[in-house]
Amino acid sequence: HTLTGHSGKVMAAKYLQEPIKVVTGSHDRTLKVWDLRSIACIETKFAGSSCNDLVTTDSLGSTIISGHYDKNYASGI
């Protein structure tokens, strides 16, 4: 299956909720949450700059921290 929706290269991806979902970060300056059962994007957040890494605080993905090329970070989605 292919997750289609980012307009730029995907630089980071992490499983959420015991791999029911995936969060991706891209050069298009967005973070997207994907439902792997329906193969659909269920949430998009504008990040402000290109994402280069993602970290989750637990297996449920209750907090997502994204690192960016402009040396900033953001938490939550």
From TrEMBL:
One of its GO terms (biological process) is autophagosome assembly. The keyword Nuclease does not apply. The keyword Repeat applies. WD repeats lie at residues 3-44. Keywords: Repeat, WD repeat. GO terms for molecular function: protein-membrane adaptor activity. It holds the Pfam family WD40. It comes from the Eukaryota. GO terms for cellular component: Atg12-Atg5-Atg16 complex; autophagosome membrane; phagophore assembly site membrane. PANTHER family: AUTOPHAGY PROTEIN 16-LIKE, AUTOPHAGY-RELATED 16, ISOFORM F. This is (Mediterranean fruit fly) hypothetical protein. It comes from Ceratitis capitata. The lineage of its organism: Eukaryota, Metazoa, Ecdysozoa, Arthropoda, Hexapoda.
